[in-house]
Amino acid sequence: MRIIITNTLGIPIYEQIKEQIKAAILSDELNEGDILPSIRQLAKDLKISVITTTRAYTDLEQEGFITSVQGKGSFVLPKNGELVHEQLLRKIEDSFLTAINTGKIAKLTRKELLQILEFTLEGNNYE
Amino acid sequence: MNNALEVNKLCKDYGDFSLNNISFSLPAGYIMGFVGQNGSGKTTTIRLILNMTARNDGNIRIFGMDNILEEQKIKQGIAVVLDDISFVENWKVYEVEKAVKGFYNNWDSTLFHQYLNSFNLPINKKVKDLSRGMKMKLMLAVAMSHDAKLLILDEPTSGLDPIARDELLEILSEYISDGQRSVLFSTHITSDLEKIADYITLIDNGNIFYTGTKDDLLESFYVIKGGLDELTNHLQEKIIGVTTHKTGFTGLVPASEVKKLSKSIIIEISTIDEILVYISKEDKKHEQHY
Amino acid sequence: MSNIINSIKLDYYILKSNFKIILIVVFLAMFIGIMTSNPPVIMYVISIYSANFMGSIFSIYEKNKLNKLYGVLPLGKQQVVIGRYLFTLAVGVLDGVMAIVLTLIVLYFRNINISNLAFISYLSSSILLFCVFISVQFPLYFKYEHSKITVVAILPPVVLFIIGITLFKKNAELFSPIIKYFIQNQNMIWLIGICAGLIFLCFSCLLSCVIYKNREL
To answer: Which residue of chain B has the CA closest to C79?
Structure first.
């Protein structure tokens, strides 16, 4: 499993950890039942605060990606189809938002923006 | 959650300097950075925690016990590393153990010698012949050899080169990795804490400016930079430690102000160092008014 | 109780490096003893130097900033005081034995004879002198930094001693019944000397406890 954090991007560290673990789960790099490094071990390895790793794991647990068992550790939960779907929908929404904001700067009309989307879908053979 | 250390409304008056209602808590199993510029009251607070000096008001609880009423019992479980060596300079390294081990019920001689080994501290060398870094490691070896649950460090890295400082942080990380031990790390070299501290208590001129998690601190204040025309009256009131030049201004603002800023102002995540610097600039401004 | 023993051990290790001074004192005492017409003066020399030697522990404490060590260790202030007095007493006894032996040696080799009375008087008064020095100096050292009052600390015992001798000489008639009593009961000289010394030490110890308790480390 690969978790690399960087101080230079302005994304909070706990977010970076969350995203990388989620990505690993979604891409099947991490599977159901796999054990994650303990909160303290991860903090020590990454040279960050225990509170940060705790927060990342707590969020992941709330979002249904992992579960923590007292005394045993944190495990990857089976990919909940609904949750994964929700995650992916959110990603699409974020990407669209970026496109919309860029469109505003480029002063495109709504029609022009939709046109670009159509062209891209066609070029990608999206069914 | 249990608190390893609780300081409540601590007051100490020295005439020209005083600690005013200092309050903060360190939950068990975490590292707290105790930061502030020189002379802000860090060492005084630590001396009060150790009951080396008498307080004027407030109370201190360590492991849930009153720090004066159960002083000796508490000190069995505390380990302290101060900024300067506190052993007789003519003692040889092995004599340090002989002098102090009788006081600790849980002294672990094997562990002590293991530390001496891994720190490369020669047993027969006199304390006065040790380098600054080695003296600090010796104090650390003593501190970590009696199963202490609270480790208090007062400016342990001053005078150390970056390599020695990094080694110290490694040792500390290892020390708290079981989640049972807590560390109070007082320093004005905040880069050490940027990485490993869980909690930060920021003291400024005898007052607590902030106490809480490090993550929250870094999300509570932001550095902003902008042109002079963007420095509104409203902003002037809220900004901390503002510096103005011909080309613009910089300063620190609470997170609540950030959304009210005009879009052209640059916002940056602050470091603990920068927060300290801006606070002290703000202090100086107030001093000039008197 | 065990912490008092630990405190004594700590004091021992603190003074350990200074023990070589004892050799110097022995030589000095022997030298004086050989030169002087009154060898039992050796006892006074050893008495004074022993008291100073025990006082030097405060000096080492100050130089090495041992307040930081004492502030951290699980060691009560009362235990420190009591331990130090006990340690000093023990060293005093050892030095007393050494003083007797050295004096006897010098007396033997120089073929001098002195009366039992004289010997016992010297011994008893040197023990008393040691106790007076410690009793006056220790509370001062527990209250103030050693380097600041080194001179001041020496004055009181010396002054007391001089006053005592002067009074004694001026009022010889008043003291003669006492002297007669002592001549008749030589063993009482021992007893009074040692008891008085111990009483001074006890009061001094109590005073030191109170002083040190309120002192900031």
So the answer is: B72
